[in-house]
Design a protein that fits this description.
It is built from six helices and five strands. With about 140 residues, the protein is of the alpha/beta class.
Length: about 140
């Protein structure tokens, strides 16, 4: 498999890093080059890292329930930075409400994310989707 580069990070003021660490390990085992920015990362930091590394995808996580706020306008900023075709994934506990996974997915897809994963999604599920979305 040709190596693809992905940028990962926990967006906003969210300090939860364990799930992001697990995802990084699985991605690396699957042959991806991973640029992991860690926790409490801004949209601009994610975008700058993707531009600098010519990343194929950005994988954003949020556990503290404020993902909808932290991700607002992210696709437009990617487009402005020249990342019009970059694959965007988001996952975790994305909203503080009791909305269904389907409603949350609909909100984030409307924000421009290609894939949206609820809490407890197994990393292997995202890897299968990522390989498909990147043509691997």
């Amino acid at each position: 498999m040709a190596s693809k580069t992905v940028v990962t990070g926990v967006i906003g003021a969210d300090g939860h890093i364990v799930g992001n660490w697990v995802l990084r390990q699985v991605l690396q085992q699957e042959g991806f080059k991973v640029v992991s920015l860690g926790a409490s990362v801004s949209q601009r930091d994610l975008i700058n890292a993707a531009v600098e590394t010519k990343a194929d995808a950005i994988l954003v996580s949020s556990i503290y329930g404020q993902g909808a706020i932290d991700c607002d306008g992210f696709r437009a900023k990617c487009d402005e930075a020249g990342l019009k075709n970059i694959v965007l994934y988001v996952g975790g506990n994305l909203t503080p409400s009791d909305e269904s996974d389907e409603v949350v997915e609909s909100k984030f897809k409307a924000m421009g994310f290609n894939r949206v994963y609820p809490p407890q999604t197994h990393p292997a599920d995202a890897i299968v989707d990522l390989k498909k979305d990147l043509g691997l």
